[in-house]
Design brief:
Archaeosine Trna-guanine Transglycosylase, Chain: A, domain 4, 125 residues, alpha+beta, ASCH_domain, 22% helix, ASCH domain-containing protein, PUA-like_sf
Length: 125
Amino acid sequence: MRVILSIRPKHVRKIISGKKRYEFRKVIFKDRSVHEIYVYSSSPVKKIVGKFNVGQILEDHPEALWEKVKDDSGLTKSDFYSYFSGKNKGYAIEIVNFVLFEEPIDPKKIDPKFIPPQSFIYLKD
């Protein structure tokens, strides 16, 4: 199973550079057979710029998550805690083998009705 994740361009740049090795989510996909993630870089880019394989998916209280992955988070402690504010659980998806597409994909050219996901959408094989 594959999904498209919406990620802000500043975080996409950190994934590309290797500074961000985990993608954080407040909610995760129910189908845990997801093995590949396509990265939709949100506005102003609005394109699918790459993909990666799913490594470990860590599920824990935000404080415990931070301690486990802070060095590979690509985030400041302040930004991390701001994102998870008021949450008792968070998820860290390990980014494995990120591939940057030579030519980003405009999903509207494939499906004119494409609506960027708030968080993620499943892809049909």
